[in-house]
């Protein structure tokens, strides 16, 4: 059922199954979350190497990062487990160096004041134009910042009177700050649109300087999350990142989805208005990934409505997951037969299946899985084994 692809192509882009109970399935999904951490996983696809990561357990929803940053949940198109050894949930927000944090306005894109606002692509208000009678205390309270910060961002004295028609910044003034010393571009409305990272930058500094959350930063760059231990993936000197989304058609994103047994969306059927951007923002897949996983798509042509788009490699053989698989009538992978050099991590990534061990747990004994390894530290499996890719239909030995 698999299709082989050359490196050049990709560089451009049996035991009977037993049914488990709903309680077991719930426990399994909770265990899947425990595999999600912040370490880097290198995914080699047809000779090209891509970095993928797993996210902490909680999302932070404040506009500015508070002391630390937790990231968005793992998206189907980049789901991986680095070693599939059971771990506790990583729910504590890690400490992130950077400026003092501020809360996000509860009224994205709106204001209880009468003046005009300018918001970014996520609805975060970055500018407010005063009207007669406005005070710095009212403006600061409306947008959930302190008067001191409002004065700092606009070169004012704290508590000073505000003249009508004054355009006030609600994010830090342009220029480098601690944790975000690189160069940014802005659009005609003064909204920061992209940024080049410098050595010493932090996620806390970047999100503070540009008034966005870590989750919004991930969405703008079509990745599942941006926090990782040591900032080794997303925050790299020289990396040019997006700070805003491109406009997408309001009709997009309403197509049918198909989830696997882990609850991960692996297929999406497009509707009128869908595009590489709309699919990428919704499911956190880059255009390059979508083109690799779906050879029928081309970047210079619209995606026809009714197209069933794969959000995982699936049919695509990747380094470390070169074997064959079976699928049900909906195309959801069910079983996989290992090939030489296959690893747990790459099999998990290819099929968006983070919990191989729970789908292949032994009935007796203390082992976490029944399948055989040729190299345990790397997670390399012996070839010729048929393993389950479905939590509800585990294979036991």
Describe the structure.
The structure is a single chain. The chain is of the alpha+beta class and 397 residues long. It has helices at residues 7-11, 22-34, 136-142, 147-154, 203-210, 214-220, 276-283, 287-293, 344-351, 356-359; strands at 40-45, 48-53, 117-119, 125-129, 167-169, 183-186, 192-196, 240-242, 257-259, 265-269, 308-310, 324-327, 333-337, 373-375, 380-381, 386-388. The chain has a 3-stranded antiparallel beta sheet. A 3-stranded antiparallel beta sheet has the order 6-7-8, with no helix packed on it. It has a 3-stranded antiparallel beta sheet with strand order 9-10-11, with no helix packed on it. The two termini are 25 Å apart.
Keywords:
19% helix, 10 helices, 397 residues, three-stranded antiparallel β-sheet
Mean pLDDT: 78
Q: Quote the beta fraction.
A: 15-25%
The largest sheet, given as strand count, sense and whether it forms a barrel, is: 3 strands, antiparallel
**Given the C-alpha coordinates, what overall shape results?**
elongated
Helix content bin = 10-25%
In DSSP terms (H or I, runs of 4 or more residues), the helix count works out at 10
Radius of gyration: 24 Å
Q: Give the low-confidence spans.
A: 1-21, 27-110
DSSP, total strands: 16
Q: Helix and strand succession?
A: HHEEEEHHEEEHHEEEHHEEEHHEEE
Strand order, main sheet: write it out: 3-4-5
Q: What is the end-to-end distance?
A: 25 Å
Structural class: alpha+beta
């Amino acid at each position: 059922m698999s299709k082989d692809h050359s490196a050049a192509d990709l560089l451009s882009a049996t035991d009977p199954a037993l049914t488990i109970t709903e309680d077991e399935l719930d426990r399994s999904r909770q265990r899947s979350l425990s595999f999600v951490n912040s370490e880097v996983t290198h995914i080699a696809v047809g000779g090209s190497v891509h970095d993928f990561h797993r996210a902490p357990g909680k999302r932070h929803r404040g506009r500015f990062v508070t002391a630390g940053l937790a990231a968005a949940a793992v998206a189907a198109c980049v789901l991986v487990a680095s070693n599939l050894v059971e771990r506790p949930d990583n729910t504590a927000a890690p400490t992130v160096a950077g400026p003092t944090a501020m809360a996000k306005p509860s009224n994205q894109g709106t204001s209880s004041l009468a003046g005009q606002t300018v918001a970014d692509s996520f609805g975060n208000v970055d500018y407010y134009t005063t009207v007669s009678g406005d005070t710095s205390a009212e403006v600061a309270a409306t947008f959930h910042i302190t008067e001191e910060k409002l004065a700092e961002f606009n070169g004012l004295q704290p508590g000073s009177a505000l003249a009508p028609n004054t355009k006030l910044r609600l994010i830090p003034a342009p220029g480098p700050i601690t944790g975000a010393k690189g160069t940014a571009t802005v659009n005609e409305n003064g909204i920061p649109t992209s940024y080049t990272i410098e050595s010493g930058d932090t996620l806390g500094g970047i999100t503070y300087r540009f008034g966005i959350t870590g989750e919004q930063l991930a969405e703008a760059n079509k990745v599942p999350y941006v926090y990782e231990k040591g900032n080794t993936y997303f925050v790299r000197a020289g990396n040019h990142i997006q700070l805003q989304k491109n406009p997408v058609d309001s009709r997009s994103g309403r197509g049918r989805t198909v989830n696997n047994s882990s609850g991960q969306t692996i297929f999406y059927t497009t509707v009128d208005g869908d595009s590489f951007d709309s699919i990428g923002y919704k499911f956190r897949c880059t255009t390059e990934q979508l083109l690799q996983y779906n050879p029928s798509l081309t970047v210079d042509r619209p995606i026809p409505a009714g197209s069933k788009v794969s959000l995982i490699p699936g049919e695509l053989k990747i380094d470390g997951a070169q074997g064959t698989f079976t699928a049900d009538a909906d195309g959801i992978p069910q079983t996989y037969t290992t090939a030489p050099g296959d690893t747990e991590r790459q099999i998990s990534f290819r099929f968006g299946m983070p919990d191989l061990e729970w789908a292949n747990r032994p009935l007796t004994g203390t082992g976490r899985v029944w399948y055989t390894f040729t190299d345990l530290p790397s997670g390399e499996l012996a070839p010729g084994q048929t393993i389950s890719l479905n939590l509800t239909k585990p294979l036991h030995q």
